[in-house]
Every structure is written in C-alpha cells, then in structure tokens.
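Worked problem 6 (solution included).
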Amino acid sequence: LHPRLYDFEGHTSFTLTTYASDWSRALDHSDAMPLAWATAYDASPSYSVYALRGYPSMVQVDVANMIPFAYSAIASSVTILLRLPLDSNSSDPSVRARSSLVDWRVLAPTPYAWSFSRKTFYFQADDVPGTTADLPIRYPPFCPAVAPQNRIDFDGENEHRDGWRAGQVYGFRTQIQVPPETPRLAVNEWILEWGFRGQLLPNRSFAVVVPAEEVRALHSFYIHSLLTTVQGESNELLFTFGTVTPVMPQQGAIVVEAPLNFVFETACVPFNSETHYAPYSPILVRLDCVAQDTVFLRVGGVLRPRFTMRPVDEPILPGLWSFQLACVNPASASDAAASPNTFILRTYATYTDESNSQGINAVADVDATIEGFHIREQMPEAEIVHVVDYALSGRDDHPSMHSNLILAFELRSEPAISGHHFMEVLAPDGFYFRTTCRVKIGPGIFGVGVKYPSPYVPFESGVQVISCQGYFHLALMELTPGLRRGKRYAFSLRISRQPAATPTRNEWRLAYGTEASQAITGYPLWAMQDLTLSMLLTNRLNEAAVVENIVELVFTPTNTVTVTGMVLLVGPSGYKIRIDCDVEIFQLSSDITVADAVVPGALCTGEQPPTNRARIRLQSETAVLASGVRYRMSLKVRNPNYVPPSAGYWFIRSYSDAPAGIAWTEPDQETLLDTGKVASLPISEFFTYFIVRVSNQVSPLETVLPIEFDFELPLDIANGDRVSILGPPGYDFARPVIDASLEFEFRQCLSFVDRPGSSSLAELPVPLCAGREIRFTFRRAHAPGEQFRFRILTDWPHKTLLDVQSVVKVVLIRRHDSVLDPLGSDVAVATSVAFLAPVVPRLRDFGLSRIGPRAEAIASMGNVMITFKASQDAQALVVTTRVDMVLFKHASFASTSAEVTVREQVLKELQTIHDGSSRVVVAFKISASTMYGVVLRSVENPDAIGTVLWTVQTYSRPKQESTLIVAASATGIVAPVIDEAPPHTTDPEVVLLWLQSRSNLRDEMVDWHASPTVGRIDMHATIESGFFDFTDTLMSFTMSVAPQDAPVDHRFLIFAPFG
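Solution. The predicted structure is:
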C-alpha cells in the first residue's frame, strides 16, 4: 500500500543495501531510487506519491513508427491525447485548485528522447487529430537538450487564460526518437504527473501510468553451443530471441548470419529440444529453411554463412522463441578467432533475398547482434569420476535428486597467466543447475578428510572461483588463472536437479579456456527406465460382482535386484492389494520369434488389511531382475470402490536388501536402488451390466460372426455423448473399403439390428464402425437405467488370442461443453469389460473336393483337392476326418502323399508326415493372405456310408524360449533350444510336438461337409468268345456289393469303355 502522506525530504524513498552473510555490517548502500530515472536529479528524488489515482483512460499515446531512430535516422511522430478530471470553472474548490496554474510533466520511457522545435510542437485542436480543444498553454515547452531527454515539463505559469474545461479532449503532437530497443532495465511506461512540484500531498493532484508499446527491435538474442565447441566437430546450436512484430507465412522470413567457416546443411532443418528453455517457447510452426554463404558487408565483403527460415502455414507471433540447428564448427580455432565472431539475427515482414532483387524487402524488427562462442582445441582428457564414496562425496544418481558430481580434466597447453578464465560444463538435457551454481575445487570433494585418489589433483592453491552461473543444463564458472598443463584436475559441481529418466543422448561436455573435451559418456540414472503401465479394468470396483484388475508394469532396471533385495510397489490411493497377492514377472524378448521367459519364484506380499502397497521378492537363488533387461510385471489388484478426483501415480522402487521376516517393515533408504513413477489410468463408473453373446451355431460356410450386446448404464446419456465398444484384436465390424488408407475411417457397419426380440428396450442410434470399434453418437438424452440391446456382425476374427486378450470393452464418453470450457476435452465417465471365449480364425476361401472314378465309394482310394487362404502365418497343415453319426470311422491317410501349389507353381519345400492313419500333416511355410492348393493323393475313404466331415487346421512353430538371465553365482538356466530348421526339413517328431498345444493353433475349418460316401461295387469282366473283334462278342461279369445288400427295384448299370 502507498503511504497516505508525501514526505518531501525523501524519507519515503526506496533504497537498496547489501549486508555480510552474518548481518554484521553493511557492504553497499544506494541513494534514493526514484520511480523513473528522469526524476533522479530533482530536488527530492523520492517515490512519487499523489493524492488521487489516475486511470490509463485519461491518457492515450500513439507513436506512429516504433522502428528505432538509430536504424531509420528519422524521429517518430507521437500524439498524446488527454482526458483529465479538470475544470477551471468548477464549483468544487478542490477541482478548481488542481485545474489552475499547476506544474505538470510527461515522461516517456527512459531511453526515449524528445526531438522537436517550437515549430514542430503542435497543440491546437486543428493540428492534433482526436482533440476537441486547444491545449491551454501559451507557448510550447522546451525540448530537453541534455539528459534526461525523455521528460517534458509544463509550467503552471505558462497556462493559457482560457484554462481547462470539463469534458474536453486536449493533446499535443510532436516528434520523439525511439530507442534502439524496448527498455528492460526500467519501466516501459508513459507517465503523466499533475502537480509534481507540490511539497504537500493535496498539491500533488494525480498521476497516470500508461503501458508503452514495444520497440520494433529483436531482443533477448543469445546463442548456445549444445554439443561441443571443439574445432571441426558436429554441433547443435540453440538460438533464443524475442520478436515484437509477427513474421507472416510465405512472405516473411527469419535470417541468421553466422561467423566465418560455420557449415550448415543447404536444406537445413530447425528442430526443438527436449528441454523447455523458459521463458523461451519452441517454435512450433512449420518452417522452410535454406542455408548458403553471403557477403558480409560490414567487414570488407567476407563470405559468411547465412540461413533463411520462412513460416509455411502459420505466422510466428510476437514473443520469446527458441529453436535448434545442426552445424559443423569451424575447422580451425585460430582462424575462427581471427574473424568477426558475431551472429546477426534479422526478421522481415516481406523478403525475397539478401540483395533485395525485387525491391520488396521490408524489416519486421530491427536486427540484433550477439557475440558467438569461442571455438576451441580438443582437451587430451576429460571424464566423470565414478570411483567415489557416494555418501562422503554427496553423489546421488537417483532421478529428480540433487547430486555432487566430480569431473576431471587435463589441459594440453599452458593457459594464460593473466586475466580470468572460464570453465563450462554442459550436461545432457534434463539436468538443471541453479542460477548461482556451486562448485568446489579444493580439498574435501571426495569427502571430509579424504585425499584425492591418483591421478587426480586439486586446483592450484592460488586459483579461486569468482562466480558460477547456471542456465538450465549449462554451468559457466569464472576462475582466476593458475592451472598448468599435464595435470588431471578434479572438481565437484552441484547438480540442483537430475532428470526423471536417463537422457536419450547421455553425453557431458567440459571446456576450460581455449580447450574443450570430446563427448563424456554420462551415467545411467538409478531409475526404472522406460516405465509404462497398462490396466485391464478402468472402472471402479463393483462390490456386488467383484472382479480383480490386472495391472501390468513394463520396465528396465538400472541396477540388478537379487534374491536378497525386493521391489516395492505403491499404487494410487484407493487401490487394494491382497496380502497373498498374485504376481508374474516375465523377462521380455526383443525378438518376436522368441518367447518371453518367466522369472521363477516371484512372491508378492501385501498388507493386512489390504492397502495400495505390495512388496515383491525373488525366492529362487538364481533369479534376478538384471540391469538393462526389460521385464513385464503382472499384478492382480482391486480398483477403488469410488471414482477418484485424479488418476494418481504408481511408484516402483527396488532395494538391494529387503527387511527380514514377513512383517511389514520400511526398507532402509540407504539400500534404495532404482525408482520409477508412472501415471495411472483414470477410473470411471461401471455399467450396471454389460453382456456379450457370441453365436455358437455358425455354418462352416459363414465368413462373418454374429454378436449380441446388452447393456445398462447407471448414468444419464446427454445429447452428443458417445458409447464406444472395442472388440478384441482381429475383429472387424466395418464394411470393407477399396482404398487401404481409409481402413481407420468410421463408416457403415457390416450389419446392425437394434433391439432384437424386444421393442420395449431403449432405441439406439445407428452406429458407425472402424475396424474393431463400434461407435454410437446419441442425438437425444436417455435417463439412467435405460436398457439397450443390439446385434451386429464382425468379419470372422483373423488373429489367435490368449484368454486375457479376448476382451470386449465399452466406454461412455461425455462430450464437454466447448463454450463453458474451451480447453477441455471429452471424458470417459463409465467403462466395463466382458470376457469372451477366444474364437479360432477360419481358413478363408475354403474348398474341398474328392477326385477319382470311385471318389465317393467306401474304402476306395482316391485324391482330395483342398484350397484355402490363411489368416495368419503358419508352418504345418493338419487334416483329419470323421463320419457323421458313425463312431470311430475316418478316412485313412496311411499311404497319402501331398502336393502344394502356390499361384500355379508347385511348392517343393514340404514334407508329408503320417501320424498313424487318422491324420496327415504337411509341413511347409504358410503365409497369411496367400491362396494355396493342396492335393492329397491316395486317400482311402472310410468303410462306412455317411457324410464325411473334414477338419483342416494350421499350426505355427512354437516360439523359442529366451535364455533366462540368472545370478552370476548360479550355474545358469538354459532354455531348451527349439529346432529352427525350415518346416520341410524339421524332424517329424518335432513337428508333431507343435500340434500338442492349442496355443500354436492358427486357422481352422472344422467339420466341413464333403459329399456322402456310398456303397461300393466290385466287378470283374471276362470275354467268353474266342474272338472279340466280331459282332455279338459275348462278355460275362462277376460282381459284389458292400457293405449291405442292394434293395429290390434298384437298377444295375454297366458303362463300357468308349468305342
């Protein structure tokens, strides 16, 4: 709050005093600090307090051109309009007093300079647009010729006799020189003070402060080297700058000129860093970038590299911006030092080229120039010292923690013995140094009383740290000289905060004086790397029908956990984990053809009563969670029985030593290894019921599968809400499309029947489908408790699923109000799942026919032609048969051989395997979506009359089990090696082993109805005549029928050979 009195003697002024750290003595003291520098030399430069508050609406300032005077050499026109609470004829004595013969002044922002003569100071209404009356002064004020030049004083004695009138708009128009840039070390404001010479508060009537526009000049321009300053090395530059004027797409441009011998790609590509260099924001608009050399006109026509960036679709708006660009540093440090080391930044409203060949180049903001960084020679040695006592040295490698890191380096050349030297440490993205960072160069960095281990030495005794400045992941230290070449100097640098995970590019850099290091390999943070989470259920617990959720965490430990250690898992509040919780841990394989390996002996223990915490230990002496290996942990939990306000986080921590016993004891934090944190999924309401029925009466000829859904919601459905149903992988509810690029577009479903069998249920809107998703968008409201039912078709599933994968999920999505909440998004307010028995994919375009003169006769030998298209890759085809309604009868494959054709080409790489006479196996490579023709030769029909049902299945080779990583002291557990030979050369016994597990089953066609088998006639013909080339040659026939007598009235037909 301002004081209620004005102290002319300056006792209310602001002063700044610095003290020693113990407050024992003052170090420095300032004089009174005025509100505006232009008042510093007043009789009393105190803080200007006035009786009344002035409002910005009282003063309007318009500067015609904000281009700096130093660039244009032209003073800008400025118009100031005044709407002041004055009236020289007022009946109110206080108003009349402040309207008569009062001294007042106008202060422009500090660096501005008034530039007018009496002839160019206009104050009459005819000369000042927007005014309604002449400014009541007798003659113009004086233009200040010396500092402060941003101040105009109007003496009360100069007031015109007409005085001030209520309701009038007064003003003046003149010229002012705009400074080189927007003032940032002083307020950027216009100030009008009415009664500024008054020594009593009532005489100091009022003051008005009006924000000033920004000068059209680029500002806050800096360059940082983010990789290396070593000569000739690939580098990345960080550019940060501020703009005042928009750079428009297509027409505008940003042009950067770099020092000599920097190399940029001709088709340069600006990009953004993982670090947000606040207050700068990354440029997110799309940019076209072209680099080339240009003539540097300021220094004798030297060719310097330049790149031009143009916004493509959207403008770059006024603000603070950053971007990065790859380059190659100059090849010679000495050559770089001999040329101008400046970067120049320009922005244009319109731009063609540097020479302005079309004459339309127009500056957006005046250019900015910044000194570049020094190009250095390479240091012989630089490293992070890892062999330290973490507790004594203060090092901590855990994520998001502070740490004391010891680095060491060796100089190639003797540094200069005069002047101050600079040492730079560049950490990877995500590390953070305080603005005033901490560095130690003397004894004690390895621990109090601990000597420097060889070959490291402390800095020379005369070297002192002058300052340490941090900027995100860059630390800059200023030191006095004294270091020598050939010594391995070690120092400790305080990291204020480490990243949450090990950076992708984990490299450090160090520079001292004229030398810089190559990349120093960073250390892995003690974190569960690449931690992800998935959950089967995202609805709150339905206590009337309790179903445990399955939470899966996938992670990579940095440190190995053995049988002596443990993993502590903590879920968000509300989750419950049983004391005898179920957990499975798998060592993941990076090869899709190799199966994940089970980590044996994982034991999960929760608390009693159940809470959101569990500890997982390894009971097997050989089991480990190995460093750098990816694992999946699957845990059963109960969801909260309420909808939490926020999703919360899951925390996972590993320890090298676990507390003894089964009682819950907090682990010793000194044994903490890795930590991890991952966001949970939001919990929503559950559906009152959600039932899915899959028809089990589907003809083998069908290529679609009917499914019926029933559901009821405990919530209302509003106009615009959506119900989305996601089927298991491999399902497809949408009509096919010709263009594959439209596969994920929502379109008409294969089929939709609303309320089958009951018109009393609520009506559903017609859905749209895309792949395995069905989406209903409601156009009218529904009350809670309304019931829905519909039937739909899916293309026959084409993917083999595990039980846990065969799940249907339904979600009610509430549409947000974009008017009340413009930044909001749609929210899932209710979810449920239904578990289905996995459906085996079918062989597509299937056909089967028997070939031969007695193809349908019982116990006859013939060929069988099978055609099909597989849904999935496989390595074996299995054929079996049975006779409908007749037990233990089937075709015999004892003598069968196989021939396979693909696109009319005979496939040679196959083998036929006989598993007794009941089934035949053909081993060959089967590719998904490929049409095959298989001929089985010498197939003997069953010896019973009836319909033969054929079952054809494909099986895949089981995945090879990955080798489990075990404790170093164990002998090792080596998984059995699966024969990886091609199917046609694999041992037949091994192929038959593939068929023992239904998990290897891929596609099938079950009980395909072939033509019925019929009775068999065996006949023998004999020529009775002596000669058979005459008319009336006599033939005799003997015959038998099987398996039963020929009924009365059946006819017997004999067909002779042709001719």
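Discussion: Confidence is low (pLDDT under 50) at residues 969-979.
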